[in-house]
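Progress against Task 2.4 (sequence-to-structure conversion) is shown through the following example record, which the project officer requested during the mid-term review.
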Amino acid sequence: MFSRYAQSRSRIMLLGVLFCGTLLALSRTAMAQSAGGGGGAGTYHPNPILWGLDITVIVVLVGCSLASIALIFDAVLHLREKKIAPIETTEHIRSLIDSRQLKELIDFTAADQSFVSKAMQAGIRRAHLGYGAMREGLESAVSENSANLFRRIEMLNVIGNIGPLIGLLGTVLGMIEAFNALHHAGGQAKVSDLSVGIATALWHTFGGLAVAIPSLIAFGFFRMRLDKIVSRASVLSEELLESLRPADKSAAAASASESSKPMARPVPRRTSTGSGDTGAGV
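Structure tokens generated for the chain above:
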């Protein structure tokens, strides 16, 4: 179960978060010490609880940033038409269908992991139930594969939405710290006492926006790209499956030719004229 967390990308992200969090904690401590001036009796020292929450917010923002970068690189490498619906795979499936090599077609679509192969395999498995069942299987596979592809970028949308909220939390913590310094000085706080809290608040706001903006831009870009690729692959899969029912096509052609033939019209019954009726009566 935990084998997927042992991948190199996960380890690198975790180490990156811990390393950046340690550096930021040390820099935060240095800022607090420098704001303390000469260390006199009236010098304000940051609240340890606020300091710990501040470091937590920073570590979370760094983790979201690294996760966003990893997701963007993953999308660049894998969410491409050459990976999802390669032309070579499509042409090979089409050649197998045209040559009616059904066994090879089943084996190839079962082994291949492209979008079109998975959709075709889901339809071919229901061939014994008729074409209607084959089409239902293909549509189900298309929906499932599309959802799996869109899930790979959904986390970018989540990071883009929660990034500003995390930054806002850090902003609130920074302002609380600034007002605590003001309260500690009895309303006569030095600029150096207030500057740490205000700077912390602004840096957190900047961090949240810096995480959210690239994530949302990347999410919108990859969503449009995926929508176009998935639409093409879905239409292509339906066309390939349609070419697997020659009997239905011949029947449809026969019915069309029958309907095109002129129908025999009933011959209207002749009515006798007045003179003819008189002759017949005689």
